[in-house]
Specification:
mainly alpha; 74% helix; 3-stranded mixed β-sheet; 309 residues
């Protein structure tokens, strides 16, 4: 377990946004609204998938997993942040902090892998439409989903284990949740060796998936350019562009936070950047992936129509 200067009975003080007291009320209202909208949006997608058999296709199977993931992901940090902003309690025990760190990293890592799987699904659908059903069959979908979840939790286990091996000094965590870079700032000794191992783990879970997604959309773009219909081409590019937008928000902010040396990491900037991948991305996912989706709109109309009857 390492030589801890902080025990499980002791607590950290989460600084949060107390350096900007004038922003705290605005942030509380803003984040609370986004949290409820995220809960409603992602819960609606899961409910529609369960209620409408027409949505029982690979794309919506993965979207359902992404929605459930985002529900857990945002809930792992936002309630603590809201409590912090409301000044009800700015402390968190060491045990809860490690648990939050592990769960957050596991869910974030799973999302990295799941977004790759969803990009592969779109690549197969656009570039190999005739073979799509045989390529992305139900057994493969279940296997890829399981691998995404397992891979995310294994990556988190490795990074959290490395983090727990470091002796920590101090009780003030300059963040709104137990974030890895902020945690490393409390290390009592040189972290170069541990940081190098973590960098490799984070590089694997962030850079490789981002490159795979980019490669898949390059192939999709090439296939779309061969489509003769200008309206279909614009629609395809619009859909792909919106998907890439949400992926860019998630990976861009995460890469900025996790793939820079700890000595150059700015805790003040890190808190605002973290809002992108903890608050913004979970609400963008249901919007981006369903806004132009005809099947989702029809399923929603069908369910609402039955409700009125």
């Amino acid at each position: 377990m390492g030589n801890f200067n902080i025990s499980f009975k002791e607590a950290f003080i989460l600084v949060g946004f107390s350096d900007w007291p004038q922003l705290e009320v605005f942030l509380f209202v803003f984040i609370l609204i986004f949290y409820f909208l995220t809960l409603i949006g992602n819960t609606s997608i899961i409910a529609l998938y369960q209620l409408d058999i027409r949505l029982h296709m690979p794309m919506y199977f993965f979207l359902c997993h992404l929605s459930f993931l985002d529900l857990c992901y945002i809930t792992s940090t936002v309630p603590q942040l809201l409590i912090n902003l409301h000044k009800l309690d700015q402390t968190i025990s060491y045990g809860r902090c490690v648990a939050q760190l592990f769960i957050f990293l596991a869910l974030a890592s799973t999302e990295c892998l799941l977004l790759v799987v969803m990009a592969f699904d779109r690549y197969a659908a656009v570039c190999h439409p005739l073979q799509y059903a045989s390529i992305v069959h139900p057994h493969l979908c279940q296997t890829m989903a399981i691998i995404s979840w397992l891979g995310g939790f294994i990556n988190s286990l490795i990074q959290t284990g490395l983090m727990m091996a470091l002796p920590l000094c101090g009780h003030q965590l300059n963040h709104f949740f137990c974030e890895m870079p902020a945690f490393l700032k409390l290390a009592c000794e040189d972290t170069d060796g541990t940081e190098a191992k973590m960098f490799v783990a984070r590089g694997i879970i962030l850079v490789i998936p981002a490159l795979l997604i980019l490669g898949s959309y390059v192939c999709i773009a090439q296939a779309v350019l061969k489509v003769k219909s200008m309206s279909r081409r614009k629609k395809a590019f619009g859909t792909c562009g919106s998907h890439l937008l949400v992926v860019s928000f998630f990976y861009g902010s995460a890469i900025y936070t996790y793939l820079q040396p700890i000595h150059s990491y700015s805790e003040s900037e890190g808190k605002f950047v973290a809002l992108f991948y903890t608050i913004i991305t979970p609400i963008l996912n249901p919007l981006i992936y369903t806004l132009r989706n005809k099947d989702i709109k029809e399923a929603l109309s069908k369910v609402l129509g039955k409700g009125r009857d």
